[in-house]
Write a structure and sequence with these properties.
This protein has 407 residues and is of the alpha+beta class. 32% of the residues lie in helices and 34% in strands. The chain has helices at residues 2-31, 92-115, 121-143, 147-165, 171-188, 223-231, 258-263; strands at residues 36-39, 41-56, 59-63, 68-71, 78-79, 84-89, 192-196, 201-204, 240-245, 250-257, 273-277, 286-293, 300-307, 319-335, 340-343, 349-357, 360-371, 375-384, 392-396. The radius of gyration is 37 Å and the shape is elongated.
Amino acid sequence: MKKTDLITKIAALCIFLALAAYLGIYFVRAVHAPVITAPAVQTTVRTETQISGIVVREETVLRSQAQYRSLSVAEGKRVGKDSAVAVTYNGEEAASRAERIRELELEIRQTERLLSGLVSAEELTARSEALENASAGLATAVARHEIQAAEENSMSLRSLLFSTDAENATAGDLLIMRAELEKLQQSAKGDTKPISAPSSGIFTTQLDGYEMLRPDEMKSLTAARLQEMIDNPQEQTEGTFSKIVSSNCWYFAAQIDSDDYAQRANALQRGARVTLELGRYYNEPLTARIEDVGREEDGCRVLVLSCDRALTETLSMRIVSATLVTEEHSGIRVPKEAVYTETNEAGETLHYLYTLTGVQVEKKYIEIVWETESFYLAEPGPIGSMLRSGNEIIVSAKELHDGKIME
């Protein structure tokens, strides 16, 4: 009996010593455990997806069968209804006369300025540089077969050459030029005819065969119908030379994968605002409005978006890909395990963390902006020391409190 008691006591002692050793080792490791920190970094988190489709505007094509024609409006300029955008001529003689009228008008304006003493030495120097630039631009446009650019550079060059000749002009020369201009203008009345804008809008010569599409065709689009529209541009008829874009916004009908849509359905409801990034077409993000969401078909839906910005800058856009951004949040990235909560006297829940400045611990309150599976995006809280980018956030340590010195 005594032998059994002795064995029991020895076994109990062994268990006690093992447990004490385990607790001792755990305590030592806990006391001397290293402090784990993470840098506070300003971060932006976005929810985005790629979409592709076609841009549609209210567009009216302008046509003229005249053999001789010249434009009266520069590319991308806004025009009013019934204002002249081009002029047609009955023959080669009328076209040559019109060119001479433009030359005379330029020469007269420059001569008037020279005779009134309004041209400075600096302007004369600038004119010399402009002559060189216009000559180089004309040569480049001719080499690339860019007709409109060649005509613009040609006009600039003639204007500069006229202004150089006008430096030696007299008041008598000015009277002669005015008389010639008046005579030519009278003669031009019988063999020139203006082409007027059918509506107010933006004038452009960029034609691609999709001008027949209308914004009101964008409702309830399916992926198949959208692809059909993209695959069937119209051929330009003879005499087509420009168009007027009369809408105050442009529309973008684009396909989106059904799974991508499902993940963002709350942000892609009709009337919602999203961000479009157009890459090489336009280098700034644009805010667009969701106008319509098509039904699901073959794993896709069609989104129709509208945008009232950058109408002129995006005139060349038609079949494009874009990045659709539904959410974007910025803040300081904070590991979730570094955040603690407490309740103030008003019953409000406050979030805070600890940072390490040198060897001293600082308690800092934060406002949580956004949450992911592994981290928060945070801003400095309403009280106490502010969390800043570059701070060392304490992710793991024992017995933290404000002002503690970490040895």
